[in-house]
Design goal:
Order of helices and strands: HHEEHHEHEHE
Number of domains: 1
Number of strands: 5
Helix content: 40-55%
Number of helices: 6
Shape: elongated
CATH class: Alpha Beta
Strand order of the largest sheet: 4-3-5
CATH topology: Hypothetical Protein Tm841, Chain: A,domain 3
Length: 133
Amino acid sequence: MLTTLKYLKKGGRITPAVAALGSLLKIKPVLTIQGDKLDKFAQVISYQQGKKKMLDQITKEIETRFKDIYKQGKLKIFMAYTYVSDKIEEFRKEADEALKKYNLKVEIVDPLALSIACHIGDGAIAIACCYEY
């Protein structure tokens, strides 16, 4: 989830008009990466809504797409962020609570690489399912 559209506009990923309208409406995009493809997943109007949307989706993914990996005990949960270390700890606690019913916890929380962070700006947070080899 991104907190600003500024860097998407600067990088040419959205038009100035879309950025202006989105900023006016305080829209925060929630993106998804599957494989090497980045897509818009949802739009929310608050940080809290974005966190809830991501946690709802990660639990849905555990129960569907990653069901077999979860049953094998090889599913790992990670988080990443850009310059919001205080907010990511709060999100981690919320995620751990949501994942408790699966007996899972967030295992690693790391800052995103600068090569990604410079395109999405500060305040971004992410949660991911990974397969343990």
